[in-house]
Amino acid sequence: MKHICESSQTESCLQRWAQSDRLATAAFYFWTSGSEMQRSQQGLLQQLLFEILRACPDTIPTLCSTRWARGSFVDWSVPELRATFSKLGESTCDTKICLFIDGLDEYDGDHLELISILQSISNIHNVKLCVSSRPLPAFEDAFGHHADYKLYLEHLTVDDISRFARDKLEEIPGFAILRQERLIYSELVSNITRKAEGVFLWVFLVVRSLREGLINGDSLPLLRQRLDEIPSDLETFFDNLIKSVDIVYKFQMAVAFDVAIRTPEPLSMLTYWFLDDNNIHSQDLASPSEYPDAESIETQMIRKLNGCYKGLLEGTGVPGSRKVNFIHRTVRDYLRMR
């Protein structure tokens, strides 16, 4: 959604729609693990209204007449925000407005109420909406009736996912397909694409697992069996990954995950190295000059992140000053909900 919102092609299309009128755009991204304002009705309406008013400051006296007259700085209420949006059409008659709203399924409230709000906004004559969600029934029923007005991500990324899977599998040294195995290999790639449902993170994790199988000498039929046993649901996939961690690593893994969730910014690999009690005890309170150098510590930590923690945390940045972060925001969200 962010790519669509910020694309120059989108702006060009909207300018043609606006013609001689002024064009204003606003965006909101629901996030279930964010603050209350990032997953609430108030956060949605307040953010959109702020961006509209910033683009059209001349409309403030009419759109927010009561606050303008009183000079009020009291927090906005949801009824006041909805009443303000109801006046949007008459107050911005010389303006075309396009609103981008991502992650409807991450709204923390009644989905039907959210749908009602969006439909009332979409009925304003000079407003267009572009919304996204997982295909939950409520949103499919409300917005999915017209094929010309909807896109399914998995329909647009089939070729990219297939290419990524083939490239990553075929770059393994010694990879070769016997003539009689070509059909099995094609089916394997096709099944990866089908089960992915457009989710590249799932593809990345699955292909990584299959690559490990190839390195271990798995045959194509065995790789197909491995793929069949991998759930297509990301949360179930994460559950299985964490359950597969060796019991001797689970406490260290839990500490690392807890720190990564709580820290506002990624911490250095050195910090995570010191979180490991074994490293502290092995140094026996030695002086800093006796510790391994930063790059040696990072090499050791990268192996641990990939092996002990199943690659759900990764090192980012340049050697010597790498930091640790989740491979994707989805992993952080999953762990926060546990």
TrEMBL record:
Q: Which domain of life is it from?
A: Eukaryota
Pfam families per UniProt: DUF7791 (PF25053), NPHP3_N (PF24883)
User: Which InterPro entries did the record assign?
Assistant: DUF7791, NPHP3-like_N, P-loop_NTPase
Locate the Nephrocystin 3-like N-terminal domain: which residues?
Answer: 20-134
Alphabetical UniProt keywords: Repeat
Q: Domain DUF7791 spans what residues?
A: 245-336
> Where is the chain membrane-spanning?
none
- Is Repeat among this UniProt entry's keywords? yes
Designated name of the protein: NACHT domain-containing protein
